[in-house]
Write a structure and sequence with these properties.
Blueprint (H helix, E strand, L loop, with lengths): L12 H4 L4 H24 L3 H8 L3 H8 L8 H10 L11 H5 L2
Helix pairs in contact: 2-5, 3-4
């Protein structure tokens, strides 16, 4: 029986998986946006038809959201979906040093 090794990430899981720093940061941003869309679906108890209407997309797009298909979405598309759901999306730009210093 093989021994399972477990690791706990303290930062970006995509860094831990070996993605470049830029790609890991982009994947983490898209993940955060997708998780917020999922929270909206759960909080509002939306079925697929209602969620598609709320986000202004076709029902088939929701299958990609539910499966966590990061490659299907752009960050811009996810932000538009959040805006259509009544959320305000704000982008904050800061120096890298100030982010890592916390």
């Amino acid at each position: 029986m093989e021994k399972m090794i477990s690791r706990v990430t303290v930062g970006n899981v995509f860094d831990d998986l070996g993605f470049s720093a830029d790609e890991a940061a982009g994947l983490a941003r898209k993940t955060d946006l997708m998780l917020e869309l999922e929270r909206i679906v759960k909080r509002r108890r939306l079925n697929a038809v209602a969620a598609a209407k709320c986000f202004g997309v076709k029902k088939t797009v929701l299958a990609h959201l539910k499966s966590g298909d990061l490659d299907f979405f752009t960050a811009d598309m996810l932000m538009q979906m959040l805006e259509r759901a009544g959320k305000h999306v704000k982008v904050i730009v800061s120096d890298k040093e100030s982010v890592h210093a916390a």
